[in-house]
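Write out this protein's structure.
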Amino acid sequence: MQISRLMLLITIFLTSLQGYSQKNKVNLTGVIVTNLGKPAEGVSVTLKGTAYATLTNNKGEYRISAEAGDYVLLVTHVGYKMTQAAVSLKQNGKPTQNITMEEDMANLNEVAITGKSKVQRVREQAYNITAVDLKKTYNTSADLNQVLNKTTGVRIREYGGLGSAFNFSLNGFSGNQVKFFLDGVPMDSYGSALTLNNIPVNMAERIDVYKGVVPIELGADALGGAVNIITNKNVNRYIDASYSFGSFNTHRAALNTRFSGRDGFIANINAFANYSDNDYKVDVSVVDRNTSKYLPEQKYRHFHDAYKSGTIMAEAGFKNKSFADYLLVGFAMAGNNKEIQQGKTMQTVVGQAFTKSESFITSLKYKKDNLFTKGLSVNINSTYALVNSKAVDTSSRIYDWTGNYVYRQFAGTNDKGELDTKRIKVFDDENAQVTTNLKYQLNDQHSIGVNYSFTGFKRKDTDEYPKIVEVGEPTVNKNILGLNYSFSGLDNRLAISGFGKLFALDSKMIAKEEIQYKSSTNYGYGATAAYHLSDQFQIKGSYEHAYRLPSPEEMLGDGLNINSNVNIQPENSDNANLGLAFLTQKKSNQFSAETSVIYREAKDFIREQLVGPKSVYENLANVQITGIDGVVRYAYKDLINF
């Protein structure tokens, strides 16, 4: 409560201060285009000799507020000639200055970087965020997991080879407490064939890692942070193909292409496939069946751990039209097949059980600035996915780590599978997701935003062994509503925002052959602030009281290794960050450093617990996390990055 009052008083004071200082300012607007007539995004626009500066948006538009007077407009961008133009700002006037930039062919390879890159602009947001530039990892055999594992505060533990499950930890929070997005669209509904360890780096431009507070635009119920994969939208036409071969008979192939026509038509295709035998060796201490004692560790080779997957994603539509900045309709098909080598412990050896999944996904993306009135923008992302998953365990064999087996020969064990009771568990899932963002820019300093996110999950649960038995049709629906206010002042050196969120969960589940209904409503809130002490130094802080609603898997299980838990509760956490960032550049040398103090206090923490040969998700006691993270970067041109 005290924090909310303090933030309110600071906002009122700064609003008044900024309002006073803005009385004598004039808005200069314009559009920057290249000599080919295309909008120039990310161009540095400055009133020479002053602190008034900005960058153009994806339409090449810019706006600068300054006191009335005569200035020189300076326009700079990598690979283009520096352009200057005299401008006169008069009180009560509406000055406009459009610029056409020409390529600097003579100095294209010896150009000095004067503007800030997209990655650097993202890092300067008020959130505790790390932006990972993927361009330098293109055409390598790495996947997104391997790249992210080198990021400050991120630790990824894969449980096996290609296609295996993994634990993603972000400053102490892990699993479903961290949400994953592809261009702002939640990846929850995509199925197991489309995950971080399957996606090639060539498909994305950068990855934004939010540590703690997550902006309402993502519409997420994340507890400890979020990962947003940003695909490359700037290049109009390209084809990128790659293939790699590695140990354990691992093959990875990817094809990415885009076509953009002069009439605004655009089409994207992304396809990738993965395969591996995963026949690597592991150290195992097996139990002697005669003495029940553990034997010394020995190396054994995985003999039933092969994985294969394939995905194709395509979308087509229009961009830069009068009715939409972009309108894209898409579809995706993905499938995978994963052999199971062991149970929850290495003492349970598996030789025939497997899982498989097939997904079909449709999508709609729409964005429009200045909708109906100047300053109002809308952004809509929606997906509808059909996912068919199978977990098959019908073998009566008992395997050891050498790959040898015996048949079960005892009475009453004919229905015993390798992991548990024999089953062919089939899940037919329907996932519907809609995220809508409305933002209204009141003026240069003030804006408000509203986000609404709906996630609907419906499952048809069937067991096909030894006969088809329909277990039921559980549902899980999530509604998230967010409201945000942002203030920017002191010549864009200060940025403050405050927000509130509503989380609603409704579910219908089957427990002990009875239908159980459950609902909950929770409220979250928070604030962020960032201030540029100088051109080189920035200080920023954020706080959030966050909630995360249980996922369908946590509530319903997976039909093989994870039991259901209809009584699981939402978890919540108070997250706070305080950070300092430094950036300096002299000619071809760039040096930057960031550090952040982290505090987390979570309640009703959800964790996976072993229950015999299986596991279940349960609410545990409170968890407190404190820490500090930091990163130092040095770059010399495009030759060295440290």
